[in-house]
Design a protein that fits this description.
The chain is built from 7 helices and 18 strands. It is an alpha+beta fold. It folds into 2 domains: 78 residues; 230 residues, Gamma Fibrinogen, Chain A, domain 1 (Alpha-Beta Complex). Strands 1, 2, 5, 6, 7, 8, 9, 12 and 18 form a 9-stranded antiparallel beta sheet that branches. It has a 3-stranded antiparallel beta sheet with strand order 15-16-17. Strands 3-4 form a two-stranded antiparallel sheet.
Length: 365
């Protein structure tokens, strides 16, 4: 029986296959080929499974890293938010403190300004009272100066002037009154040429401090510093406001001038605005290349558009510059401190240092 089974099995395995396209001649060959393919497939499956396991393991590591990063990010974000909140609170507190201090400083400044204004007002009232005692009012002096007619040689004629309300002269009266300087408004701006450019006119170097410039005419810029050398004299400064009103700024005397420093010799205040006397007559003098003013911090001429004139520290009126920015002010020329202008009932332009139409200095020998 066993022999019959073996013979039958052998016959089956050695029987040719019905399909030669299968790549095997006998059934046993196909079986062996299938076993080989199965082993190959198993090996590939094993390799793929190993790769999949590696990918799964890597994915797990990545997920752990992501979780760790998210946790760290949350902690960092919370820390930053807390830090920013703390800093913002500190900034708000600092700002509130600074704002309170600034407001307090402004209030103190306002009080100080008001105090200075009241002091200036009281001083002006005292000056007006003194003028009445001297029987010479500012209006009378202004009327006198506005009646001046200046000839080309510097002599001044006075016409149609009432004296004490009783004497009236219609004939020219020769008086020894001369014009030291005259600064007039330049309405053409920086394009103005020659002596008509008022700012440029007053930019005088030290070497030309005694050089005569311009023509002695109330309508033109003029400078004759040689008159300071002629000995004892009385000086009167007048201003013409924007609407044509003329007022006296100050009246003073001096025995002459120091030709080196340009300081007046033995100056004395006589009438008018004492602050203007102090800054524009009784103290120093500066040009852009010579610092002779009393300011410890700056050369006043350099600070104010290189305008040459008498300075204290620095000015209440300026022949060529503004004190408000820009100091060149379109080369307009004469400017006056606002409170001085207001005390003289002159129209102002709204700035702290108003434009005026003219500033003139006369000398009387």
């Amino acid at each position: 029986m066993k022999k019959l089974f073996l013979v039958t099995l052998l016959a089956f395995t050695l029987t040719p296959t019905a399909s030669p396209a299968a790549g095997c001649k006998y059934v046993i060959d196909c079986y062996q080929l299938a076993l080989s393919d199965l082993e190959t497939a198993r090996a590939r499956i094993k390799e793929s499974r190993a790769e999949v396991n590696a990918l799964i393991e890597r994915a797990s590591e990545i997920e752990q890293l992501i979780a760790k990063y998210e946790a760290a990010s949350d902690q960092t974000t919370h820390a930053l938010v807390k830090l920013l909140d703390t800093r913002l609170t500190q900034i708000e507190a600092d700002y509130a403190n600074k704002e309170a201090a600034f407001v307090k400083k402004l209030e103190a400044t306002a009080d100080l300004t008001e105090s200075h204004y009241q002091s200036a007002k009281q001083a002006d009232e005292k000056i007006q009272a003194l003028l009445k005692q001297l029987n010479t009012s500012a209006e009378q002096v202004a009327k006198l100066t506005s009646a001046f007619s200046v000839s080309s040689d510097g002599n001044v004629q006075v016409k149609n002037l009432e004296v004490s309300g009783t004497l009236k002269t219609t004939e020219p009266v020769q008086v020894k009154t001369l014009m030291v300087y005259n600064s007039v408004a330049n309405e053409e701006g920086p394009k103005a040429q020659g002596n008509a450019n008022t700012l440029a006119f007053w930019q005088i170097p030290y070497k030309d401090r005694f050089k005569v410039k311009g023509v002695a005419d109330l309508r033109l810029n003029y400078y004759n510093p040689t008159l300071y050398k002629k000995g004892p004299a009385t000086y009167i400064d007048v201003v013409e406001g924007l609407e044509g009103k003329v007022a006296m700024l100050m009246k003073a005397s001096a025995e002459g001038i120091d030709p080196k420093t340009m300081k007046m010799i033995n100056p004395k205040f006589l009438a008018g605005k004492k602050t203007e006397y102090y800054h524009q007559f009784a103290n120093g003098w500066s040009s852009d290349d010579y610092d002779g003013d009393t300011s410890a911090n700056v050369n006043c001429a350099t600070a104010y558009a290189k305008v040459t004139q008498h300075y204290g520290g620095c000015w209440r009126y300026n022949l060529g510059a503004d004190a408000d920015s820009p100091v060149q002010d379109s080369h307009w020329g004469p400017h006056l401190y606002r409170y001085t202008a207001q005390s003289l009932n002159l129209k102002i332009d709204g700035s702290d240092h108003t434009r005026v139409r003219r500033i003139t200095r006369y000398v009387i020998f």
